[in-house]
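Mods, move this if it's the wrong board.
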Amino acid sequence: MMPSFSRRKILAAGAAGGALTATAAAHAAGVFGNPDLPPQGQMNATAGAFADPGPQNAVMEAQIPAFANPPATDVGGMAQLWSSFSIAPKRVQAGGWARQVTTADFPISTTIAGVNMRLGPGGIRELHWHQQAEWAIMTYGHCRVTAVDQNGHAFVDDVAAGDLWYFPAGLPHSLQGIGPDGCEFVICFDNGAASEDNTLLVTDWFAHTPPEVLAKNFGVPQSAFANIPLQDRWIFQGKEPGPLAADVQAILPDAGPVPNPFTFHLSASTPVKQNSNGMIQLADSTNFKAAITVAAALVTVKPGAMREMHWHPNAAEWQYYIKGKARMTVFNTGPQAATIDFNPGDIGYVPKSFGHYVENTGNEDLVLVAVFRTDKYAEVALADWMAHTPPAMVEQTLNLSAETVAKFARRPQGIVPA
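Not the wrong board. Structure tokens:
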């Protein structure tokens, strides 16, 4: 006698079979650290399939091992998120040098262009201005900065490693290396296509203005301009400046100071988040009032610790790695996920609202500066979101136990332990 099957039993069996198939597929993909079909990563390949006979750039591959052997959780074809000043050619002149990374070299970085510049002792980045705002962080030595605002107020200050400056678009300024060994710094323009070569230089304007016009403008004879430079000076060797107080006395009495200083001591500021794993220091228009288009975070991560999973809802993040070694994974819709290794001098970019985290993979402190084209810094931490969503919603969505969800940190940590 044939067994009888009800429609309900058939549907139930089909559902169970579908669930088993899905479960089997998930297990085939590895579940932990291997979620995709077809499966990703070295764990799924034979030795012969994974081998790379070459040719290879062994030095570059050693610097960024995640490119050659990405985690199995990486998926999709995300645009390149890595660049480096180390692959940018230097323009060298008597007083120093500069190199840059713009959208011409790093297409994804549409919001920020970066310039790495060195001025020797007395080296001068000549009087100039830009069509974009200029934000900078000092990474070495000492520098004297001067500027004038649109109301004729004057500014002069000396800055050291960890200090910032910001000049709004169109405001004229100059820079000079001081002290025993000059300075080095990184400039960020608030336009990814901006170029250090596209600068309005005072020497160019003088050389391309008729002498009689210069005479009328400054109220001196034409002969006074007989020896002006006929080519721009850009970076040239000058005499080391005297005491800061002397320059202050020379320019401020009849001009008055600017309403908000153009410099800020970021590395000396009180961290907004700090624990035994590291700290985050911020500079935006709330505390660095002159910086109306650029916000920044100076991030220090201890060995083995991690900048927690988060994203920025209001701006893309341009990163400059100052010290240590790092590994970052960036997440986007698709799904897409890409992992990159970073070394000092490298540049990273995370588009607005893309999830990401940064691990310290070295044996010393990781220090990086994150720069945003916005007036105010903002971030959303993944753990904070999970901790402040109704627990049942989190448990059902992620198949987590109530005990696990109850252990989530109730406040953003910023930096978390290994």
